[in-house]
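Figure 6 in text form: structure in, sequence out.
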């Protein structure tokens, strides 16, 4: 993700009330990003839903295959970085 895209995303999330942006006192080019209460609630919900989805997938394909799928996706994500 480019710096410009990250800045646009952060501004959009701040406008929607999910986080706050403040100048970084040690680096004028940077911003400090903090989740708001709404942002923490959304993050908690995403983690919970992700866990539920993984459990459901595990029921469909079996836990061993789910573990294998997760490892493969983690490897793919690492290589895409």
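Output sequence:
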């Amino acid at each position: 993700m480019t710096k410009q895209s990250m800045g646009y995303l952060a501004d959009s999330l701040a406008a929607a009330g999910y986080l706050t942006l403040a100048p970084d006192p040690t680096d004028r080019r940077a911003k400090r990003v903090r989740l708001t209460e709404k942002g923490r609630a959304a993050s908690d919900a995403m983690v919970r839903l992700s866990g539920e989805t993984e459990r459901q997938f595990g029921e469909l394909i079996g836990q061993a295959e789910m573990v294998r799928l997760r490892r493969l996706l983690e490897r793919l994500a690492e290589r895409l970085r």
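Caption detail: The longest strand covers residues 27-35.
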